[in-house]
Amino acid sequence: MNSIVLFSAIFLLTFSGSCLAILDAFSSSLDGSNGGYSLPKSVNNYELHDSCLIELRKQMNLEKHASLVYKQMAFHFGSVKVVRPGFAKIFEHHSNEEHEHSNKFIKYIDLRGATIDSFNITMPQKTSWTRVLEAVEDAIDLEHYVTNEIIRIHRIAEKTCKDIHLMNFLENDFIDEQISSINKLMKLATLLRSIGNDGYGEYLIDRDFFNGKLSLDEL
Ligand SMILES: *[C@@H]1O[C@H](CO)[C@@H](O)[C@H](O)[C@H]1NC(C)=O
Ligand SMILES: [Fe+2]
């Protein structure tokens, strides 16, 4: 029994000794002068720059704001006074997507070791729209604003934070989707403009969306 303990102790000492030797060799091979390079310590060297953290928190709130705006539209068009269930479905879907976007920012902030702070979400100001076209035009304005904000954050990530991971996240998870979502909304606006101020035309398009004969992805 004693000999096993002794043997293990000797083994551990030898093993850790050789580990240190390997790490020493490694560090001095990286740094010939033995001056600049030091072994990693338990600090996060990839913490978010404060400027970028502030912007990401703002974007998390903006995406949630967008989600509530679309929720308000979904409610309005589905309501007893309007009854456009197809468009209500589209706006509901958009609302859920924006909620997911906000979640993505929350998860990203956490991934980078920061905290989200308390929510500060601007409530939607508008509660009714005379025509679906008016709501779609509002949606286009909002998506343009959101896209410009993402591009602005990307610029700050590049110039101020020098953060390629954040730049990559914004490019891969947001820019492309923003561009294609604006494109679809613009096509929907053109379609709605083509019927003029005609409630029956709007009803027919709504019915096609509701029955799944028409979908935004196919426009
Ligand atoms: C909440 O957001 C608004 C608009 O972005 C900003 O002006 C205000 O200072 C924020 N409030 C807090 C407590 O962060
Ligand atoms: Fe979004």
Describe this protein's structure.
It is a single chain. The chain has 219 residues and is mostly helical. It has two domains: 43 residues, no CATH class; 169 residues, Ferritin. The longest helix is centred in the last third of the chain and has 31 residues. It starts with a helix and ends in an 8-residue tail after the last helix. About 14% of the residues have low confidence. The site of fe (ii) ion has 5 residues, from helix 2 and helix 3.
Question: What tags apply to this protein structure?
Answer:
single chain, 219 residues, mainly alpha, Ferritin, 2 domains, elongated, binds 2-acetamido-2-deoxy-beta-D-glucopyranose, binds fe (ii) ion, iron storage
Topology:
Layout: H1 2-30, H2 50-78, H3 85-111, H4 132-159, H5 164-194, H6 199-211
Helix pairs in contact: 2-3, 2-4, 3-6, 4-5
